[in-house]
Amino acid sequence: MKVLVIGPGGREHALIRALAADPYVTDLHCAPGNAGISRDVSTHQIDAQDPAAVLALARELGSDLVVVGPEAPLAAGVADALIEAGIPVFGPTKAAAQLEASKAFAKTVMAAAEVPTAMARVATTTQEAAEALDAFGAPYVVKDDGLAAGKGVVVTSDRAEALAHAESCFEAGGTVVIEEFLDGPEVSLFVICDGTHAVPLAPAQDFKRIFDGDQGPNTGGMGAYSPLPWLPAGFVDEVMERVAYPTLRDMEHRGTPFTGVLYCGLAITTRGIRVIEFNARFGDPETQAVLARLKTPLGGLLMAAAKGELDDAELLHWRPETAVGVVMAAENYPESPIKGATITGIDTAEAIENVSVLHAGTTNNAAGEVIVDGGRVLAVVGLGADLHAARNSAYAGVAAISWDGAQHRTDIALKAANGQISVSEGTH
Fold this sequence. Notes:
Keywords: ATP-binding, Ligase, Nucleotide-binding, Purine biosynthesis. The chain is an alpha+beta fold.
């Protein structure tokens, strides 16, 4: 099976590593990739958001399956072009990707499917935003309706700050969704879908804020771990029954069946499970931790989803170890990351037992050195018998790598390792 992965980041590097381990995958390419991906497979410099360019490359390579990583190409209709040409694609159509591209649309689907979620109002004016903020009260949750790479959300107890975020979205020509605040720990669950059937992966938890102790501004995610030892029994079954399948049925009913990853961002509140958001693709950095544990060949699973044959797919098998991924970010991220610094120590880190380094924002300079080329630069994943061991592996890898201005959190998975997460009450 020849596979083409679309995307430039850490999630795509994790997909490439997992697909490379699949004995049925005979040929593997990535476009556009990054410095780390180009060490593993052939990369192609095309505009990943141009459906015609992606289709031309897939034809040129004779790809049997195209896996679309990021949200932007999905929203641009890359999957539609491939489907029309008869090439199996893992990723939703433009219409189905609205589940992520529009939070207002996602709320409409959840209402129709009776999926438990936060109460919300859509606002298009400052007055509507102010009324919604007052209706829900603090803490205030304000979300840009469109795609914002995980950074369009403000959660604050400062009403003025919440209103200012809403106004900045309006000025950019957008609308906002204002929601009630959900207490309790958050969980990410990736559900592989073929339009009708669905298979859940192992749950993960990610860390959105830039600084230790969940302080500072939101980012695309500073680290993740999987599985979650504190989850109540039957959690995944409940999410499938109350969230994933009702959503799939509603999307099918609308004539826009969902194929790809339905990423369920969930809060376990004092009143039960609530959906925070849907994404239409693998999440970054949770993918790096989740796929590090997957034993089942990934190519076959994604192909079954693309072809609508998931009901025949084998049960998933997982490594017994725990995985912890720590993101190393550029200086001044998440504001305006400073690019160009030379990175050292990646090979040293990868030589450590149970450590893998996945590239996100990297490229090569003229001398062939790996340099910083984005906000989130690397994810260092450690495997271990438990959370403490996995954390030790991951941070040993982090310690081996350096560049000017590198930053990372030191507390990824620490609360869980110390048994400090409780499901019955809010934790952050």
